[in-house]
Amino acid sequence: MKRRRMNQVPLFSSAGELANMLVTSNLIDAAWAKIPELQRGQSAFPSSVQTMVDHPTPNRTIVVFAPLPDSTQYPLPVGGDLVPYLDFDFLGTKECPSVSINRAALTIFESLKNHLSRLKTELNKREGQLIITGHSLGGSIASLFTLYLLSNMDKESKYRPICITFGSPLIGNFGLQHSHWNSFFLHLVSDKDPLPTLFLPSGRSATTSSHSQATAYKPFGTYLLCSELGCACFDDPDLILKFLTVASSEVGGGLLQVVDYGEILRNLKNRAICKGPQLAGERFAYPFSDGIVMELKTIGIDPAKHNIDTTRMEAEARTLAKKTKASDAKELNDIKKYMVMLEWYKKKSKEANKCYYDCFKNGDFQRDVRIEEFMGQLTTYWEDMVAQAERKPQKEGVSFRTGWFQSATTFRRMVEPLDIAIFYRDGGRDYINNGRSPLYKLLEKLYEEAAKNPTGEGPDSKNKKVSVLLTDDSCFWAHVEDAVLSCQSLNHANSTPEQRESSRKNLVKFGEYVMKQIENFAVSPEIFLEQSSFMKWWRMYEASIDAFGNFYTSPLVNFMKSHKYDCYGLPEEA
Fold this sequence. Notes:
The chain is α/β, with parallel strands linked by helices. The chain is built from 23 helices and nine strands. A hairpin with a 2-residue loop joins strand 8 (222-227) and strand 9.
């Protein structure tokens, strides 16, 4: 069998790269150095955790949390319970909407809240690097304070905090683990330190039910796991729990010993992270699988002995590696290409004096088959994007959606009319209630939420570019189709008086809706092309009005009868 070349794929995970950066840049040393310095000083607060702010350089701030010296051995009551904490629900996802925190840690954090609130205000005025650090229980408070900062952080913030903890116990449930801000946290843990193992979930199986996720502790962030053989970095919560479980069984009971993390850091300087002393010089024929096995053995875990599924880990690593290469860029380029093809289809339809909606509905061009293919690719892409946003914490999800908001709106306005065409072509009725996909509903909801914060663009500015406008309401053609059906019902010989009255009311309502769209320059001029479904409706409606003696008038009727639509969207003369 031909061997794979080892330089084709990366050996270590991005978690390892994060830890290597912090170690080689001395940030992790700088963080640890402040902890004994704080413990040697005097506490200014009546709390079991001390805090200190240091500015070692003009562009670096270090916030330190550490337990009182006499509380190091018993930092938290064993078996500490989790309690919901609404202030962190911005991290919630649909899968785990609420976040729960260790009661003891939360009590201490709340006792410091006034001081921390003032500290947050002070930090907002500073620029540069911000490190939040803590040891044992102090690490728990450091993590909570970092989350507190992140909950109030926006894109304009002058800092991005990095939280580094040493020997910190688990502090929360599955809701924390799912945060996409995991890259802000690095937890250094020794297999000789029992403190991080205090709140391990009971049993050996992974917690997957909604109840167990809410009631069991879960690691979150990146973990730098250390043994006598070396250190390895992971962000897989189940694997981290496995390491803590193995460490707990080896440390045993008795008084909690104090681990010298300073010595561990000094040893780290002599070797690259994730390379154990016996394995660092080996070359790997299968970089993913061999690299994973090496990392596990480095922290004292034998995959076979401890029943570790390296196949799953390898599959996840390969997926991540592919995404870090050209796949994302290629996908984005493909999406742009599909949208360009739809724009081209729209242009060709207009050149034939037809609306692209009607061309597609009537199958006027042979290229319509490819258009359906492009629609499918675009829909799949945006379904994936929305799914990613839904899995993100609430606040970060908003920021994430903002990044692709305009593209998503263009997609909805361009593609949904084609789905409407398919729906009515196949004999459907009432698309909005019977045919509209959840994707379009959600994208429209996001648009409406964003519209509450206007950008300052009004009808006058839209008038200048209406010739290239996509109709704002992506369901416009569904309203047109329903209005055509109402006209047919109004004129049908077998319609009952009640049906005719209902149709008449629907048509009046539709006329008001269309006129509002016109006044706001919210419809594309192509709706007035002679062969469009809208003009088909208008001819039917106009005939109905004339048949009843021209007794009915309205702003839309006046607009259409006077042919003002011929000048729609043209710049007004000065």
